[in-house]
Amino acid sequence: MALLADLFLATDDAHALQYDTAPGTFPDRLQYTLVTELQLSMLWAMVRGINWDVKSLRQFANIFQAKEGQVLICRLPATMLHDLLNLPAEQRSAVAAKWAATAEMKCQPEDARSIIEGLLVSARKAAQSGQNVYLWNCV
Hints:
By secondary structure, the chain is of the alpha+beta class. It has helices spanning 13-17, 37-48, 78-85, 89-100, 109-129, and strands at residues 4-10, 29-33, 61-66, 71-75, 132-138.
């Protein structure tokens, strides 16, 4: 069973709810597999240089759940996006390699780096437009 993971921008939670039925109407979206709020919270801890804590998941605002939890939308924390934008470019590869090596990711460092770069693109666009970044997951 595949896990679909889309990052997208929306003006607010009400707007973001429309993503589940009309994703094609959201021009600023990136499509991945594997990524959940758990993995993103682990990345965030690595970016901040701290140990991961389950309490960090509380920062991800779950705004939608359907099909017995098989479809979810959460708003990424603005502070996480800010921290990512402040991560020096020369540290991104090291963080990507560390993140890729976790049991939750189990991927190649370049795949993790690609997700980080996508997050950075989304974070920049969100900062410039006053929007939020959301994660849509579907099993």
